Amino acid sequence: MKNTTEETVQLHPNDSVAVAMVDLPSGTGLSRSKAACRCNIPAGHKVAIRSVSAGEPILKYGQIIGFASRDILPGEHVHTHNVEMGDFHRDYAFGVDATAGNVIPPDQRASFRGIVREDGRVGTRNYIGVLATVSCSVSVVKWIEDAFTEEVMARYPNVEGVVALGHGAGCATAPDNEGFVFLQRVLAGYARHPNFAGVLIVGLGCEVNHTDCLLNNTGLETGLFLNTLDIQASGGSTKTVAAGVSMVKEMLKKADRVERTEVSAENLLVGLECGGSDAYSGITANPVLGAAVDLLVAHGGAAILSETPEIYGAEQLLTRRANSRAVGEKLVERIHWWESHTARFGGNINNNPSPGNKAGGLTTILEKSLGAAAKGGSTNLMMVCGYGEAVSAKGLVFMDTPGYDPVSVTGMIAGGANLVCFTTGRGTVCGFKPVPTIKLASNTPMYERLKDDMDVNCGGIVDGSAGVQEMGKRVFDLILKTASGGGTKSEEHGFGDNEFVPWHFGPVM
Description:
The structure is a single chain. By secondary structure, the protein is an alpha/beta fold. It folds into three domains: 1-88, Archaeosine Trna-guanine Transglycosylase, Chain: A, domain 4 (Roll), CATH 2.30.130; 127-255, Ribose 5-phosphate Isomerase B, Chain: A (3-Layer(aba) Sandwich); 269-493. It contains 16 helices and 22 strands. It has a seven-stranded parallel β-sheet, with helices on both faces. A five-stranded antiparallel β-sheet has the order 1-2-3-4-7, with no helix packed on it. Strands 12-11-13-14 form a four-stranded parallel β-sheet, with helices on both faces. The protein is globular and about 80 Å long.
């Protein structure tokens, strides 16, 4: 970062804008320009530091974030009123920036106290899951969960809880519909998740996604730690709840016997998410998380970057780091799919920042994407996978998901993520059982307002009291501590039962 004044920051020497670190009153001088602010510039928003002609690209991070819709003078506020989207060439340059990387020898890698399952999978939490196949069985799985009160769970001190996960799909659709495939993939991913010691799947009995269909299509097999129930075959809701409670109790007895053991950080798969972003997100929290990801990868672990519509305009930074041309081309193909997908519904992915994003200073999807991509750090892109697909690579992985936070995180957990790191600038309060979620605040004022919901304050980057690499090391250490059983703010509040949202699209008949 290159300072213009103490109140602004220029992120790249070629940038045509600087970011206000504090509210800048009209008349504030800009040391890199002969001009002063021509109006009040809110904190986090952009101020022009040179003239930009109408139609000329506007640069931030040294990259195009949009085009001037009219002539812009130094000192002007640069935002939605004078910035528009436009087409421009991306040089994908597949793999040109891929490197050998920094890989720490196995005997020197960091470790955490994880839960090793019988088949070798490693979890960070120890839950029993109750999954609904269809919206019609959601109430029943919730009633089964309700039977396991704090008093009951006190008998099983080594189990975090019983969590029921419901959704609004599972029927009135074609069995070969892509959305239906996603639903089954997600349910199977959760059923196999190492943070679940056991899982009960509950269906109605006549739905498209009935239990036999789910098992047959995904290769799931019932046994000691996976059971199924159908409400119709069980004699109704009351009898199904009674049977389900009995099955869960048997799972709890065995789940409570687990013990945490020291395992390598290579067993961590961290999902990366940002939501309620602001202009500070791409300067503080996201680069900090990227630095932590670089450390995780060096220690043999893996991380998932997602939200395809929110790396739009920054995908060229990832394709340049692809470990093969095929990986880079798969990412570009996903971008093109999203362009076609949104067009079918009369929309586009050119400009999707929310009202909160815009209030926080983010003007275009290009600007948002460049900041969001920083979560992935600087290592090679090793794999591009479909929504909810099992992640099989170490290092940085990209998963094709929507930008909607619960849908994106649900897909990453289905893919095997056993911990989530979530950056936010405006503030977010969600959690994602059965996986712990670490919240990283991008700025100090929001952190102070939402201190009960935030785990890390990255705002020190703004005032110079902390550096990105230093904070990245702190976050990496917190990842290890959390994976070892350390609690997060969202877990303290009990968030995570209602944020299970599989990607649902396609015809509902």
